[in-house]
Amino acid sequence: MLTLLLWCLLFVLCWPLALAVLVLWPIVWLLTLPLRLFGITLTAVFALLAAILLLPARLLGTAGKRP
């Protein structure tokens, strides 16, 4: 609701800027999409590396707790 109110305020105060944002926002979203996908991929790669590197410690840590 706050976003809508801020959008209406921007449209009333400076309608050319509001229209420019309305037109350019999808273009900016499309341009940043590859960067977001790259970030998601890097996060997954680092999570995989952490899981691989910590696997021996996790296995040894749980081995001593078995009855």
Key phrases:
elongated, mainly alpha
Task: Give a short summary of the structure.
The protein has helices at residues 2-13, 15-63. It is mainly α and 67 residues long. The chain has one domain (2-61).
Content-based structural category: mainly alpha
The helix-strand sequence is HH
Helicity range: over 70%
Please compute the radius of gyration using only Cα atoms: 24 Å
**CA-CA gap between termini:** 56 Å
**Can you tell me the overall shape?**
elongated
Largest sheet: none
How big a fraction of the residues is strand? Answer: under 5%
Notes on the structure:
By secondary structure, this protein is mainly α. It has one domain. It has two helices and no strands. The protein has helices spanning 2-13, 15-63. The relative contact order is 0.06. The mean pLDDT is 88.
Topology overview:
Elements: H1 2-13, H2 15-63
Helix pairs in contact: 1-2
